[in-house]
Input
Amino acid sequence: MIGDAVFEQSVTALGPLDLASAALSTPLFSFVAAVLIAPLVIVAAKIIEDRRRPAPVIHPEPDTATERYRPERLALSIGAALVIFAFVIETVVRGYLMNLANIVEWWEYATPVFAAVICVTAVLALIVTRGSAPPEQPAPSARRTWTSFGPRAGLIASGATFLALLATTVAAGLESSTGSDGRYIYLELTAPNTSIDPVRPWFYGWAYGVPVLVCLTALAGILWATLHTNAVRPFQRPEYVQGERVVRTEIASGVVRVATAGMLLALAGAWRFIAEAGLMTRLINGETGEEYQTTWRYAEFAATGALLAPILEILAFVLLILVATRMLRTRRPRAGHEEAELDAIAGVAR
Output
């Protein structure tokens, strides 16, 4: 009873801003927020799509070309759901069920990228083994590259996320320092114009960053291979070209979204970790009890990253939910649907 009373007093002592800050610092809250936002995006995309009223698209017959892509579409949906599942399970088990004191939890940041690698690899395997059969009747078409069906905005966003995660990981690794155990897991913070020893909180150093870089490199390579293979495989028949283009655009958009989401989740976690260490501003002398102010040259960037982290997580979860539910919402791909969803995401964000 006393414990309940203390807990109740501590909760009531927190203001709305404190509670909001505590919620936004939890990835699971971002997931819940994304679950609420995703239906708004779906509805907005449907409205945008209806207003544009694209010209009717001639789809291949279900038992010929469209069904040929069904395993790939199904793998994308299941894969996106598994990326969410892997991230949530890892967060719960690591954060609430295991005692990981003094253990470098490098998998926390590598897991979403690795899960995205598995998903995209499964799609590539299906394209190579089942989706690249010789054409029934050769169809003339222009030269196609890995960007032919990838959504331009999605590719740009994915590239920007890749560079942001790469730059963050390398910069944080260079800023990290090692302890007596040789692990690059510390950030050295000093108080200017004092002779007291620096404080060394745990930090997103090389011990965390190297596994992320390995997974990031693998993701970039497998994503390129998937987009390339999806583009260059032959069309089945001349009359199927228009419909197959729509399906291939959906597949390209799906793998790009899964890859982008995996990188966004890792980037958000890294920015949170960096902020936890870099925003420590007080250093107390253990002998005299005097308090000093610490400085770090990247403190402003760390503060900005802490604010943006939940936004990146919500965006990542929304992208994964859209991919995971795509086959439930649309039995056949529709031209312009990916662009409408991107516009809807931007509209909801505004």
